[in-house]
Amino acid sequence: MSKPDALLVDIAGLVESGRSNQMPLTVVAGGAVITGRLAPEAVWRQRVSEVLADSARLSGFSAMFTTAAPGEGPPMYLHFHVARILQGTVGIPETGGMYRVAIEDVSAWTMGDFSYSDH
Prior knowledge:
- This protein has about 120 residues and is an alpha+beta fold.
- It has helices at about 5-20, 40-55; strands spanning about 25-30, 30-40, 75-85, 90-100, 105-110.
- It has a 5-stranded antiparallel sheet.
- The longest helix is centred in the first third of the chain and has 13 residues, at about 5-20.
């Protein structure tokens, strides 16, 4: 999108202000379908930092995610956790991941997330 969807920006802003990590959302960005729950950027950064800190090879990157100052103005990114990139009938990764998506790159979206089961 050349101009971000104002409603999506408002949703991201509400997630940021309420510090909620329960808003389910599915977006299409760059042709990929990403589904999961939105989290405030600070919560997302903290979780990514914790995951990196637990890794012997990646722990040096952990501090990068705890030092960012909150941005001014409307949110520019969606921060997904417990998220999957949908590929056919499979969600990758199975356990869910942490994704940051530029709002201006979202070409379509819907409320809710999709979960798959092999049952």
